[in-house]
Amino acid sequence: MSDIAKEAWRKYLIQLQIHPLRTKAITSGVLSGCVDAISQKISGIKNLQLRRLLLLSLYGLVYGGPLGHFLNKFVDIVFKGNDNKTVAKKVLLEQLIFSPWNNFLFMAYYGLVVEGIPWKLVKNKIREDFPVVQLTSWKVWPTVGWVAFRYVPQHFRVLFYSLVGACWAIFLNLKAGSASIKKD
Fold it and tell me: Which of 184, 171, 160, 167 lies closest to 134, judged by CA?
């Protein structure tokens, strides 16, 4: 690892210790923006849509990072330990309550705020695509949650989820997009 990378990591760890919520929120916001830039290119957008990138960065900053921070604290308080039985309870709680909520909220935010589509069309898009999104989520995230709750220290989980979530976010961005919606 280069000296610059080592120093950046050292400073990141200091900020994570001194200002955990702020650091996790900023991390999530920056990664959300990077993921959106990648999603835009994958979906064939020629010129980067800066407004969209900023709105998705804001989503990570204001919602994703803080929720991850508090959710991990909450789950570790409710279920103490990281033995297999406890980890299974944590994953189950996360997948049955928070996963559907997060997927629904992202799809609604994307349609209403990012794309500026009326609620009626967003609701139809969610009704059509949410089952596929949620079922796909349940194929991916329980394993990620298991690894996180079993092996990743609490203060690194938002970073871990954000990094793994980059691929998931690309899927969600592409699925939440309304290219197939006819704006009447």
Answer: 171
